[in-house]
Design a protein that fits this description.
With about 130 residues, this protein is mainly alpha-helical. About 55% of the residues lie in helices and about 0% in strands. The chain has a domain at about 40-120.
Length: about 130
C-alpha cells in the first residue's frame, strides 16, 4: 500500500528531504523543521501554536525580558487539558506536561526571535 505524499509527512518522503532542506531560506528553517517531529506530536504542536497565537500581543508575558515560569506552567497545564491524544494515558501527566512545556518554550523562543528581527530590520532578517 503506497502512502500518498503529504498525508502523514507534509514534506514528502525521505528521498526528497535533502534537496528541500538545501533550498530553504534561513528564516524559514526554524518553522520548517516541524516535519521532523514524530507523528504523535503533530496534534500537540497545533495546540501549542494556537496557545502562542493567543499570546501574540504587546504586553504579553511571552515577550517579557524574563517570561514568568508560573505563567508558562499554567499555560502548559491548559494545553495539556485540551489535548485529546490517544497515547496521553500511556505516559504520566508529569512527563506529558513537561513535553508540552518544552514545546511551548521552543515556540515562544521562535516567535520572540521573529518579532525582534522584525523590529530590528523591518522584516528583512537574514540571520
Amino acid at each position: 500500500m503506497e502512502i500518498e505524499a503529504g498525508k502523514k509527512y507534509p514534506k514528502g518522503n525521505v528521498v526528497t528531504f535533502p534537496l528541500e532542506l538545501t533550498q530553504l531560506r534561513e528564516e524559514q528553517s526554524a518553522e520548517n523543521t516541524n516535519y521532523l517531529y514524530p507523528a504523535e506530536v503533530f496534534k500537540i504542536q497545533e495546540q501549542v501554536e494556537d496557545a502562542c497565537d493567543r499570546l501574540e500581543y504587546d504586553g504579553s508575558f511571552m515577550y517579557d525580558a524574563y517570561p514568568d515560569k508560573v505563567s508558562l506552567e499554567c499555560l502548559a497545564k491548559k494545553v495539556c487539558e485540551k489535548c485529546d491524544c490517544d497515547y496521553k494515558s500511556e505516559i504520566s501527566n508529569r512527563w506529558f506536561r513537561a513535553l508540552i512545556q518544552m514545546m511551548l518554550c521552543n515556540e515562544m523562543s521562535y516567535r520572540r526571535r521573529r518579532r525582534q528581527c522584525h523590529k530590528d530590520h523591518l522584516g528583512k532578517c537574514t540571520e
